[in-house]
Structure formats: structure tokens, C-alpha cells
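Long-time lurker. I teach an intro course on protein structure, and each term I like to show students one example going from raw sequence to a predicted 3D structure in C-alpha cell notation. This year I'd like something fresh instead of my usual example. Would anyone be willing to generate the C-alpha cells for the chain below so I can use it in lecture? Attribution to the forum is fine with me.
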Amino acid sequence: MHIFPSIPNEDFEGYIFDCDGTLAHSMPMHYESWCNALKKHRAQFEFTWELFYSMAGMGIQHSVERFNNQFNQTLDHNCIMHDIKVFVHENLHRIEPMTEVVDVARRLSKVRPTSVASGGPKVIVHRVLEIIKVKDIFQHIVTQDDVVNCKPHPEIFLYAAEKMGVDPRKCLVFEDSLLGIEAAKSAGMKHVLIKHNRPESVAKCLK
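-- Reply from a regular --
Happy to contribute to a lecture. Here you go:
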């Protein structure tokens, strides 16, 4: 279940949307992809839904580096990334749109520049947007492959604003992760947080 809050009543000049968990109902599937990869490579720590969501938007390489430092692991981020990408590609058919958010994006795109700023790999982000039939909405799509720094650094949002030709202070960001919200704040942007409850379907990943 997700909770869509009200939108600030201001005259914004540009709108930026995260992809996974914001436009696409895909986070449970991404969680399973991480569980699968970490189990395969014998990670020695409990990978909970809460831990997964705490690093949402960070990107796979940076997330693996964080786990290695935090839990004294020696995981290879290239191997983890490969297995996650394979799992995601095999399960893309399960992804559905976040209808309320997509409806808002379609409406706003008719009056102001809109873009996507996602911490996911370019090939996956573009495919997800195609699957949920929203790729045509956005003038610009920015991913982790287009920037050096991942969320919570503001670079990805600032770059999206630059691509749209809009002052960052006149942008509104739609995000579902706390790291994404932190990045939006650092970019000087207002934000809308899409809240999620922990889905029942992920319980099997904890066993």
C-alpha cells in the first residue's frame, strides 16, 4: 500500500519524478533481486526490507560498498550488479504503474517541463518506463549512468533541472525514498514524499 500526499499549491516551473517506487510499483521486486544476489554470494548479514529501503536511490555499487563497510563484507559490486540486472530483466513483466502518481505526471507534463531522475541503471529505468507506458511523458530521463554522485547527493536532481532549463528552486520533486528527499532538499527543491507500507509479499525474503 502507498500513500499519496497533497501537492504544494505553488507555481512550479518544472517537475522531477523518481522512477522505482514513485512512478513504478517495483520496489518489492527489486528487494527480491537484492535478496537473491546477496544469498547467492553468501552475504553474512540480515537484509531486511527496512535496510533495503534505507539505501533506495543510492545505486547498486554504492550500496554494496556501504554493506561491505558496515557489515565487514567482501562483496563484489560487479557480481552483485550482474545478478540483480538478470533478475530484474526476468521479472520486469511484474511491474505495474503507480496510477495516482502517473496520472499527476501526465497532467503536469501538459503545462510544464517534466523529467525522471532515478538512481537505477539507464537500461533498466528506460525499460521500466516503457513497460508502465509513461516514457512519452518525460522530456528528459536522468539515471545513475549520467552522474558521478548518487542520492543523497543533489547532483542527479540538479542535472535534471539543468536539462529542463529550470531554476532548481522552482522545481518540485516526487520521491519515495528518504535519500531522495534529502537530495531534493540539498538541491533547494520542494518535494512530495510517496509513503509505502511494508508489503506482505516480501516476508519470504527474510527467511
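Some talking points for your students: Strands lie at 2-3, 14-17, 24-25, 96-97, 114-117, 140-142, 171-175, 190-193, 195-196. The chain has two domains: 2-26+97-196, 27-93.
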